[in-house]
Amino acid sequence: MSTSLKDLLIGPPLPTHQLAEKRLNKIRALAAFSPDALSSIAYANEEIFLGLVIAGSAGLTLAWPIGLTIVGLLAIVALSYSQTIHGYPSGGGSWIVARANLGTVPGLVAGAALLIDYLLTAAVSLTAGVAAIASAFPVLWPHRVELALVLLGVITLINLRGLKETGTLMAIPVYLFLFTYLPMLAYGAVRAVLDGPGSLAANAPPAAQPLTTFLVLHAFAAGCTALTGIEAISNGVPAFQPPESRNARRTLLVMAVLMGLLFVGSIGLTQYLAVVAGPQETILSALARRLLGNGPVYLLIQASTMLILAVAANTSFADFPRVTALLAKDGFLPSPLFNLGDRLVFANGIIVLAVATGVLIVVFGGDAHALVPLFAIGAFLAFTLSQAGMVVHWWRERGSGWWLKAAINGIGSVATGTAVLIIGVSKFADGAWITILVIPAMVVGFLKIRAHFREVGQQLSLRGLPPNLKPFPPPRVVVPISGVHRGTVDAITYARSIARGVTAVYIELEPGAGQRIRQDFANWWPDVPLVILPSPYRSIVGPLLDFLDKTDRQHNDGQLAAVVLPEFIPAKWWQSLLHNQTAWLIKAALLYNRRRFGFQRVIIDVPHYLRR
Amino acid sequence: MSTSLKDLLIGPPLPTHQLAEKRLNKIRALAAFSPDALSSIAYANEEIFLGLVIAGSAGLTLAWPIGLTIVGLLAIVALSYSQTIHGYPSGGGSWIVARANLGTVPGLVAGAALLIDYLLTAAVSLTAGVAAIASAFPVLWPHRVELALVLLGVITLINLRGLKETGTLMAIPVYLFLFTYLPMLAYGAVRAVLDGPGSLAANAPPAAQPLTTFLVLHAFAAGCTALTGIEAISNGVPAFQPPESRNARRTLLVMAVLMGLLFVGSIGLTQYLAVVAGPQETILSALARRLLGNGPVYLLIQASTMLILAVAANTSFADFPRVTALLAKDGFLPSPLFNLGDRLVFANGIIVLAVATGVLIVVFGGDAHALVPLFAIGAFLAFTLSQAGMVVHWWRERGSGWWLKAAINGIGSVATGTAVLIIGVSKFADGAWITILVIPAMVVGFLKIRAHFREVGQQLSLRGLPPNLKPFPPPRVVVPISGVHRGTVDAITYARSIARGVTAVYIELEPGAGQRIRQDFANWWPDVPLVILPSPYRSIVGPLLDFLDKTDRQHNDGQLAAVVLPEFIPAKWWQSLLHNQTAWLIKAALLYNRRRFGFQRVIIDVPHYLRR
Fold first, then answer.
1. Which residues of B touch A340 (CB under 8 A)?
2. Judging by DSSP bridges, how do beta strands A502-508 and A476-481 pair with one another?
3. Which residue in A54, A234, B66, B301 has its CB near the most CB atoms, within 10 A?
4. Contact criterion met (CB below 8 Å) for A124 and A229
5. Residue B209 — pLDDT band, cuts 50, 70, 90?
6. Which long-range contacts (CB under 8 A, 24 or more apart) does A146-155 make?
7. Distance between CA atoms of A290 and A298, rounded to whole angstroms?
8. Do A605 and B607 touch (CB under 8 A)?
9. For chain A, how far is it from start to end, CA to CA, in angstroms?
10. For residue B453, which residues of chain A lie inside 8 Å, CB to CB?
11. What CA–CA distance (Å, rounded) separates B62 from B217?
């Protein structure tokens, strides 16, 4: 039942040899790597609007200069990442570049920041995508959490199945988005020339707060989310057709230009036409409605926004498990994150991301605006460390013109580092403090995990073992019995097949019960000694452990004591609820009860299968 | 840590020999057995009031005749139970009487009805007790669920500790209740004579429904809860000082008179003075407030009401586990319900009752009125069956005057049986349907459980075994290894100490990894064969089970295959989250994977303890 349900949802297991990579041409590569970057404008615009509207029309007039500043930052970062593609043609994720050039701890900081970045990309994209659709159909607005979770479930299943043939499918939303948004912006520009400017003073709500420098920095910090996703191409250079490095750089250039156009175009039009959004609508929806009315074209725009955001969330499901797998491979995370699942994907990483995203969506009430303060700081921290790493990289290499390359990355690093500071300070109370606390905690966790695995590796190493291993002497075997029945027969018979020194033990809970057992037992096994242990406190585990401790101390001969447990396996699952879990309790006590541990003991389970 | 917390809350274990019973004189016995019965008036009055008030003042005038009818029923039932004490001096709970005289299935119906009765006594008493206090302090009214749960937690802990020395403590609320309520009713009677009757027509809210026969029967059915608890003395005859039977009957007489006085007195005064309660107050609180004002005497009345209700809930915690233990002793419930816990109480029964009560309180929003429809039907069904059983008992005995005794019990049985019908029909839609569904389901469950245990007993019986048991031949041993390390050393060395035929198995997840392992392994154990199993679908369990199936089929010699598993036990609990649970998965598959099961296999755990 459960297996077939799993097969239905996820598909049957795939053999390892099917693991292979297909190279992408530039058109496909743009679709594969840009959804996160391009869709960022959906929430970045919204954040700038929400950050400024509280200062009324005076605030909203600043959207344009803030937008231009962010586009300037975009240009710097794109140029800088173009250098990374050059320097790391085999793929230069922040974690790889920072670790190789700055050391383990900065690398781990970049890794933690990246993981948070991907997690929030998933959460913010899903909630912003649902907000785009709920702007068109206000009846959906109260159900945004449920809708976002359904979308999350679908994306999780798609990713657990593995993405072999869905590459083309994913390209459709990206080009749909470009081919609806860019014409809309062009049409808007024409309309702007024909209609002339709107009046923000007339449309904006009254100012709730004065226009302070802090408020402006706050809006800038929020708008920085427009840049998230720009690093994707530099991680995936080997997926391009040769010449990989050059194709990747050209694709990055195209993507950055598109990002800039979309961002500047939409923010400029919004301000020029004095578009203001109501409480249950996004600013991009308000702009589209202003230009296109409520008709089918408007709905197409909103649908394509939602689709590209869903695809952007989907890219997190490819990237996050890849980073956790890299960390697990180096021992900073447990190895199941590195193991390929049935469908040749890192299934455990996908599940971790899905659960964490779901928790974020629920805790933050499906509101992208509440999630954004946690977001930008992770992305920009990863940018900063990766570009600082590139500076060291060029300095170490000292190839021709190294100082120019180092300078470009240095400028990028300083610019994004400044942004990190602005975001951290201005968004601290809004939620950035969570990210600022979580990143160091993750780094400490990574280091502790690796320390543990190293310690285990040393303890398990065979170094120092004598070259000739002596076999253990045959074990002393103890068989705890609950009575004389078929389970006892199996256990005693088995014990006698592996050792001579077999002792049966009966824990006497009711005074006097042992005598009856002793007679029965002697009839069947006159030559096996039976020890009856009184248990005044009615515990089974305690007296047994005491007995084992005592006999181990008496012998102390290097023999391992083995405990043979007859275990009944009922025919139906509910029946096991009816039996007391004594065998399980004894096993757990023998394995885990460290306080009692002094001698190593072997546990032998002799199953007895019940019919019906 | 966890052990010491448990010791702090529950106390250290007690040895079995401390199990002994102290006899009770009549004063103490009344306190021990009557809280449930006496406190019933708190919710029975309330139910009659709520049942009638919807028909306005015309409805409320019927409270007095309904009250008198219920007192008549009380007299019949008390007389009938007095016969039970006579016939079963060793304790005649409904389950015992019904099973002995009517057969197993009626006995189980009575047992199920009793369990539901006790469960609802606990839930209704706690919620009604909290309602009494929240009537005095309206600020507590919205927090009734939480308060009831806290009270439940305290009572559960007290009972898990065992009640040795709390008998005297429990007597205080009972006598406090009697010595505050009876004087209040006497004072009320004087005031009634002096002040003359009040006008219900003036005080009652307008009728929301017409006064129908159904509505009257409905109110009567709800008022029947006044009788719950009356059977308690007949269950506990052996606890009385000798002559047990006579003392018990006298105590029952006193209790029944007190119940009648309290019930008739309070319901009569309420009607004569035309007291009506508001939405956040109980009718008894309204009566007390009317007579005593809002001063300390009123508060004392409410506090004593809450205390006796808490003590009544507490009696369920003595009775419910006793019935589950009796059922478990006869194989109708799993044996852990029959085992005495650390403190010589049936701890598992207490925990089951506490959890079920908590669920009821939460699901029904801490509202006694919503719970009562589930309540009376269980109690009256148990009454009916127990008294019908007594009729058969007297008929079988045919002692002197047996027909009179049989007639008394017969009348009781018919009267309570009629009440069951009235309750079942009139309260069906309010919630009685739940009880009507649950009781047969429980009976079916009891029978299925006993059938399972009987089946297991037969399967485990040694009957038919040959008198001389041949030992098994030494086992074939298979050691799955994940590499060549200290865990492997322990496992292989141990395997060779118990058998000659040892085979190591390596499951190759990454193609080619096996070759390295083979060389390492051959260096250490040149004489142990190593089988490398490819696993194209990256499953560890599947290829191992296939291998075991294949070799078992090849040999098919009666040898048991044993699987030796090296198991790492980390030093700290969180570290075990970091290791993949392969050993656990293999064990579970070997024990439970029935589809693959064909041959019995032994599982041998060789623990390897990690330091730090």
1. 538
2. parallel
3. A234
4. no
5. confident
6. A147/A366, A148/A361, A148/A366, A149/A358, A149/A361, A149/A362, A151/A126, A151/A310, A151/A313, A152/A122, A152/A126, A152/A313, A152/A354, A152/A357, A152/A358, A152/A361, A153/A354, A155/A126, A155/A310, A155/A313, A155/A314, A155/A317
7. 9
8. no
9. 20
10. 578
11. 11
Q: What digits encode the pLDDT tens for the residues B304-323?
A: 999 999 989 988 888 898 88
Mean pLDDT score across all residues of chain A: 86
Nearest to B600 by CA among A608, A494, A566: A608
Assess contact for A253 and A262: CB atoms under 8 A. no
Picking from B455, B460, B502 by the largest number of A CB atoms within 10 A of its own CB, the best residue to mutate is: B460
One DSSP character per residue, A303-344 reads HHHHHHHHHHHHHHHHHHHHHHHHHHHTTSS-GGGTS--TTS
The C-alpha atoms of residue B416 and residue B428 are separated, in whole angstroms, by 17
Q: Sheet of B601-609: strands edge to edge?
A: A530-534, A502-508, A476-481, A561-569, A601-609, B601-609, B561-569, B476-481, B502-508, B530-534
Look at residue B2 in the predicted model and tell me its pLDDT: 45
Residue with the larger pLDDT of the pair B170 and A518 = A518
Residue A486 has pLDDT above 90, yes or no: no
Task: Compute the CA torsion angle B442, B448, B454, B457 (nearest 10 deg).
Answer: -100
Say what the pLDDT of residue A594 is.
53
Inter-chain touch A537–B471, beta carbons under 8 Å:
no
Residue (of B212, B271, B352) closest to B57 by Cα position: B271
Give the bridge partners for A503, in sequence order.
A478
With bands split at pLDDT 50, 70 and 90, how would you rate the model's confidence at A121?
very high
What does the alpha-carbon distance between residue A443 and residue A431 come to, in Å, rounded to a whole number? 20
Mean pLDDT of B66-85: 91
Q: Is the torsion defined by CA of A414, A416, A418, A424 positive or negative?
A: negative
SS3 A602: strand
Asked if A498 and B475 come within 8 Å (Cβ–Cβ), the reply is yes
Q: Are A200 and A271 in contact (CB under 8 A)?
A: yes
C-alpha distance across the termini of chain B, in Å: 19
Within chain B, what is the greatest distance between any pair of CA atoms?
A: 109
**B59 to chain A, closest Cα gap in Å:** 45
Whether A66 has a pLDDT exceeding 70, the answer reads: yes
Q: What is the dihedral of CA A262, A267, A273, A278, to 10 degrees?
A: 110
Give every CB contact of residue A137 below 8 A, 6+ residues apart in sequence: none
Phi, psi of A566 (to 5 degrees): -75, 130
Q: Crossing angle, helix B283-292 and helix B35-53, to 10 degrees?
A: 90
Partners of A605 in beta bridges: A565, B603
Higher pLDDT, B150 or A539: B150
Please give the structure tokens belonging to residue A407.
Answer: 């300078």
Task: Say whether A580 and B537 touch across the interface (CB within 8 A).
Answer: no
Identify the CA nearest to B375 among candidates B574, B227, B595, B236. B227
Residues from chain A that touch B6, judged by Cβ atoms under 8 A, are none
Instruction: Say whether the peptide bond before residue B243 is cis (omega within 30 degrees of 0).
Output: yes
Residue B17 to residue A536, Cβ atoms within 8 A: yes
Instruction: Count Cβ neighbours within 10 Å for each residue of B352-377 and write b for 16 or more, e otherwise.
Output: bbbebbbebbeebebbbbbbbbbbbb
Tell me the C-alpha distance between A190 and B478, whole Å: 79
Q: Rounded to two decimals, what is the model's pTM? A: 0.75
Cβ B305 vs Cβ B418: under 8 Å: no
Taking each helix axis from N to C end, the angle separating A402-426 and A63-87, rounded to the nearest 10 degrees, works out to 140
Q: Out of B469, B511, B603, whose CB is closest to A16?
A: B511
Q: Does B165 score more than 60 pLDDT? A: no
Query: Residue A524 and residue B462: Cβ atoms within 8 Å?
Result: yes
Upper half-sphere CA count for residue B9 (Cβ side, 13 Å): 12
Name the CA radius of gyration of chain A, rounded: 33
B115-146 pLDDT, tens digit each:
999 999 999 999 999 998 998 888 888 889 99
Q: Please list every residue in chain A whose beta carbon sits closer than 8 Å to the beta carbon of residue B592.
A: 569
